[in-house]
Amino acid sequence: MECPASSAASVELNPVLRPLTWLLGNWESDIPGEGTFPTIKPFRYTEKLYFSHVGQPVINFMFNAFNAESKKPMHRECGFIRIQPGTNKVAFMIAQNSGLVEIEEGELTGNHLKLQTEKLARISFAKEPHVQQICRVFQLLPDGKLEQTVTMATDNQPLSQHLHITYRRSS
């Protein structure tokens, strides 16, 4: 499913979002990303990211990950990004297909966004071990690529790197 970022082209960007304009648009992994965690077998994945706006002081997003070998759908996330006006404080509100709902907050420094879990909720029958914390870093690299690194802690594992991937802009 493609999510056209061009829908934002006809609507003026809310000025509150100007510090985050570098995220807007469609992104696609140029090479497979790497997933690891102490309790799972390492894996490779591809991912498409969609960041758009409709003129409100919020960015809409959708992340779709696929198995790099089989191309089967894997992880999905969607939600909203807000920035506190006049500050560098950013919040991601995320719903995941695993049954996890999360609020991550953090700080924006130029083209570097670092977030960490503020609140978590999950469906009553979510797979164990339960995620307890997520830290996420987005960074626009000098070559124009976007890098994302995700670390995670569960009921039985401390905070450890889980995902690392880079993206290029796509149409």
TrEMBL record:
CDD domains xrefs: lipocalin_heme-bd-THAP4-like
InterPro entries in alphabetical order: Calycin, Nitrobindin, THAP4-like_heme-bd
Alphabetized Gene3D superfamilies for the sequence: 2.40.128.20
Catalyzed reaction equations: peroxynitrite = nitrate
A Pfam cross-reference name: THAP4_heme-bd
Positions of the THAP4-like heme-binding domain: 17-169
UniProt protein name: THAP domain containing 4
Organism: Nothobranchius kadleci (African annual killifish)
Organism phylogeny: Eukaryota, Metazoa, Chordata, Craniata, Vertebrata
